[in-house]
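For this section, I looked closely at the sequence of one protein beside the tokens encoding its backbone, which the following lines show:
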Amino acid sequence: MASTEMDIDSAAPASPTSAPQNAPATTTSTSDIRTSTGAVAVRSIEGWIILVTNVHEEASEEDLQELFGEYGDIKNLHMNLDRRTGYVKGYVLVEYPTQKEARAAIEGGNETKLLDQTIGVDFAFVRPPVKQGDKGGRGGGGRGGRKGTAGGRERSGSPEGE
């Protein structure tokens, strides 16, 4: 049976270019782990999950254990299968207990061949980058209200008597 204790990654050493202690939560520091698209990688509840894409439909769990096991201790490996055919749907989720192991698997496994197909590997859970001018929150201001009131929007009238 699996241990119920959570593994905790050690904090990265502070660098002079990292964000100050009193910086807003939307600011990211240079020590944040980034994906290939620039989003900030986020830890799941139990570990660091990577997404393996373009997996050959005939790949087996043993093939993936062999490939990704060399980068660290695999906590969980989830292969979604097509109900009708029984083949892999084309992606796999691999969970590692530490960020270091997940990062090693991404760097070592990305753009490698598995059963004659080039696979892509990246973090599964990310926080998208903050857009310039984005103030945070949920947005959507200016909803409701009557015509001509503050916060409302101009609406065209209905056509009369046609």
Remarks:
- Helices lie at 61-69, 99-109.
- The first helix runs from residue 61 to 69.
- Residues 70 and 103 are 13 Å apart (CA to CA).
